[in-house]
Amino acid sequence: MLSMPATADVSGNVSDAAFIAGQYCDDTWRALSKLAIAPGDLAVERAGHIANRLSAALGNGPWHVLVFSYPKLGWPVMALMGNRILVAKEFVDDSNDNELAFVYAHEMGHVALGHLPQRYAALIADAGGAVTRWTQVTRYAREEWALFRQEELEADQFGFALAARAGFDAKAGADSALSHLTPDPQHPTPEARLSALGLKGASR
Ligand SMILES: [Zn+2]
Q1: How far is the centre of ligand 1, averaged over its atoms, from the C-alpha of 45 (Å)?
Q2: What is the pLDDT of residue 13?
Q3: What is the DSSP letter of 34?
Q4: Are 173 and 53 in contact (CB under 8 A)?
Q5: Domains identified in the chain, total number
Q6: CA 107 to ligand 1 centroid distance, Å
Q7: How many whole angstroms from 187 Cα to the centroid of ligand 1?
Q8: From the CA of 152, how far away is ligand 1's center (Å)?
Q9: Is residue 167's pLDDT more than 90?
């Protein structure tokens, strides 16, 4: 039903969407860089080590990991175009390696599957084109929740396979990470996500 960026349902062209998505990635990276935890912290080492194992399995070059601390942000991990991952120190400290690996791999999946340009292509179309800044389309996000939910399931499949290929216990990681999510309309329910992976959810 949903397709990759090259054939996404858009009125603008794909390079516009890639440009706007890249702009969003650069701005986000720059903003969170100001909250970076200094190298040497155990969380930074662990976060980097897990990303290295996953990127070796993915085989598309090294990923840059930025560990930040900003508890009010509302999301713990995000991957950006240009092989970049942002992760909250609090999330690293609270998660075991399998959980971290599944969540990282899920986020890497969003990038590898071209979800950011796909999202921006749809949002630019919602805005009627002629967009020069990503901030001009954020108000249309609600119209794309169905697309977002579909992307989540695709990223789950990708992340599950990648985490397993990198030698992590993908089942335990996905089970634990997805079981502890708070439901929101931009994501499928945790139950739907677990069941799409053939899992039942942690009993704890
Ligand atoms: Zn996701």
Answers
A1: 24
A2: 53
A3: T
A4: no
A5: 1
A6: 6
A7: 8
A8: 5
A9: yes
User: How many Å lie between the centroid of ligand 1 and the Cα of residue 110?
Assistant: 7
In-domain check, residue 156 = yes
Q: What is the mean pLDDT of residues 171-190?
A: 90
For residues 115 and 78, the answer to whether their CB atoms sit within 8 Å is no
Q: What angle do CA 11, 109, 129 make, to 5 degrees?
A: 15
On whether residue 172 sits in a domain, the answer given is yes
Contact of 122 with 148, CB cutoff 8 Å? no
Question: What is the 151 CA–ligand 1 centroid distance (Å)?
Answer: 7
Q: State the pTM of this model.
A: 0.89
**Contact (Cβ atoms closer than 8 angstroms) between residue 64 and residue 47:** no
Element (H, E) at 67: strand 64-68
**Torsion 112-116-121-125 (CA) sign:** positive
Distance (Å, whole) CA 108 – CA 137 = 23
CA–chain centroid gap for 202, Å, is 22
- Residue 144: inside a domain: yes
> Could you tell me the distance, in angstroms and rounded to a whole number, from the CA of residue 106 to the centre of ligand 1?
6
Domain annotation covers residue 201:
no
C-alpha radius of gyration, the chain, whole number: 17
Domain region containing 79: 8-196
Sign of CA dihedral 114, 116, 117, 121: positive
CA of residue 36 to ligand 1 center, whole Å: 22
